What we know:
By secondary structure, this protein is of the alpha+beta class. 34% of the residues lie in helices and 12% in strands.
Amino acid sequence: MVDNELPDTVVAAAEAIASGKISVRELTEECVKRTEKHQPKLNCFISFQPEKALEAADKLDAARMAGHPIGPLHGVPMAHKDMYYRKGEVSTCGSKIRKDFRPKYTATVIDRLDNAGAVHLGGLNMAEFAFGPTGHNVHWGASRNPWNIEHITGGSSSGTGSAVAGGLAYAGLGSDTGGSVRLPAAICGLTGIKPTQTRVSRYGIMGLSFSLDNVGPLTRTARDCARVLGVIA
């Protein structure tokens, strides 16, 4: 499939996969190709995992073909701010201090996205320890705004804003303590939501401020935002 034939939203992608119009592998391969092409310019990924993503895609295709029930995000490629823990995998939190940190448990929201069928592409760039409204990072370099690479993405969920707006991932999680979902959403032309606190579990994510931290998605449309929030809330 060529780019203009691909679904361009989370909901459209999930519906196309469910109907058999496109396979999870086809959709994931396109996101992998886009990432390989645009990552050098956008710098939105800290860790990119194409082999694992394609392996997961094949399993999801097999499950659908076998007639197993599928979730609301079945086969949708996503990537998340690199502060959401996945057991045994490095989570840098945007800092070289944690370049070898491997958590012993998985974040509740990541478990929920996995159970809903989302494909995980990797960990996204961010301001170090989620502290910075522009999204700049002295260790991994700045993520670039796909609309104009000379402009900031906003932070601290800079990589999520860049990856979703740039079409590398269909959606992604940011976090919002003082605007870190809302700023990239506004600056990168996306829809983001800061849910009511405790509406979404914070278990298994890096904490910044216990009384202010929130988990929230960044997507291309309000309907997509509702779909993702419905899974993680």
